[in-house]
């Protein structure tokens, strides 16, 4: 088991270290903050592709009986890669935060300290809480509390990562000063679409599938489930709703800037600044 756990423990920090070494040799004008940000996003995309693939395999394998059908990935992907990634990502987000403020010249960011850690937790509280909740709630549920049932729904939760590569691509396009190109605008649409489908609409869909299995109408499914299940889903879904609203606001600002830039100048196509 320790050897298997080592797969994720080695893979994600190893990729992060590799990207931090390679990127400065390609983009020589990038600061440490730029390199760490893009490295973090690339590793996030790798994990997201792995999780989405695992989710698609589990969901397609367990569609016959969404309660009792089993697939080994539903449990072991969480152990092998989910837990190591979430633990690594908290550290990677802290480094991104640290170098971003160090580049801006903040005095307290000349070296790592409890003060910089505390500042990171306060500024990124929702993200840190999200990661800790997944580690402390999803892991016990996946391993101990499911009574070997519900692999289909665990696979559905893996699919929530489908939007992550598009979010990361948007950040990297901005880093490469390509926020004016059509790729960035098309990617913004994909961010909104995949985020809505896989992080918001997915939860009513899971309730619908559960209801279909037991012959229940959708509105009665929450009353058929334990309160802890409903509260757990609500705790996972609530921050997704908040982030989706933020993404919609950013998309609307980008749309307004594109329209405002579309009238006066011959340099229309390169004047809008997206901020996904």
Q: Can you write the helix and strand succession as a string?
A: HHHHHHHHHHH
Give the helix proportion (percent range): over 70%
Percent of residues in β-strands = under 5%
Question: What is the number of strand segments?
Answer: 0
| Overall spatial form | globular
The radius of gyration is 21 Å
Provide a count of the helices: 11
Biggest sheet descriptor: none
Determine the mean pLDDT: 87
What are the low-pLDDT stretches, counting only 5+ consecutive residues below 50?
Answer: 264-276
Distance between the termini: 40 Å
Output the structural class: mainly alpha
Provide structural commentary:
With 276 residues, this protein is mainly alpha-helical. Helix content is 75%, strand content 0%. It has helices at residues 2-26, 32-61, 73-103, 114-123, 125-145, 151-158, 164-175, 182-199, 202-214, 221-224, 227-261. Helix 1 (2-26) crosses helix 2, helix 2 (32-61) packs antiparallel against helix 3 and helix 2 packs antiparallel against helix 6 (151-158).
Short description:
The protein has helices at residues 2-26, 32-61, 73-103, 114-123, 125-145, 151-158, 164-175, 182-199, 202-214, 221-224, 227-261. The protein is an all-alpha fold.
């Amino acid at each position: 088991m320790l050897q298997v756990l080592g797969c994720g423990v080695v893979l994600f920090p190893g990729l992060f270290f590799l990207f931090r070494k390679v990127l400065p040799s390609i983009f020589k004008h990038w600061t440490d903050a730029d390199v760490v940000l893009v490295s973090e996003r690339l590793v996030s995309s790798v994990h997201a592709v792995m999780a989405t693939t695992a989710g698609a395999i589990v969901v397609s394998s367990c569609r016959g009986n969404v309660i009792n059908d089993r697939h080994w990935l539903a449990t072991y992907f969480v152990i092998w890669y989910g837990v190591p990634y979430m633990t690594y990502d908290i550290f990677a987000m802290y480094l991104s935060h640290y170098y971003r403020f160090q580049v801006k010249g903040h005095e307290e960011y000349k070296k790592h300290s409890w003060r910089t850690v505390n500042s990171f937790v306060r500024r990124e509280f929702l993200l840190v809480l999200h990661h800790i909740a997944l580690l402390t709630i999803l892991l016990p549920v996946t391993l101990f509390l499911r009574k070997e049932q519900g692999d289909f729904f665990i696979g559905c939760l893996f699919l929530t990562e489908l939007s992550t590569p598009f979010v990361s691509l948007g950040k990297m396009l901005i880093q490469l000063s390509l926020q004016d190109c059509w790729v960035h605008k098309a990617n913004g649409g994909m961010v909104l679409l995949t985020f809505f489908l896989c992080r918001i609409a997915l939860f009513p869909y899971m309730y619908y599938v559960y209801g279909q299995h037991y012959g229940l109408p959708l509105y009665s499914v929450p009353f058929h489930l334990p309160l802890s299940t409903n509260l757990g889903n609500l705790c996972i879904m609530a921050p997704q709703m908040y982030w989706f609203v933020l993404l919609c606001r950013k998309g609307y600002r980008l749309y307004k800037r594109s329209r405002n830039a579309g009238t006066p100048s011959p340099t229309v196509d390169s004047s809008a600044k997206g901020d996904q």
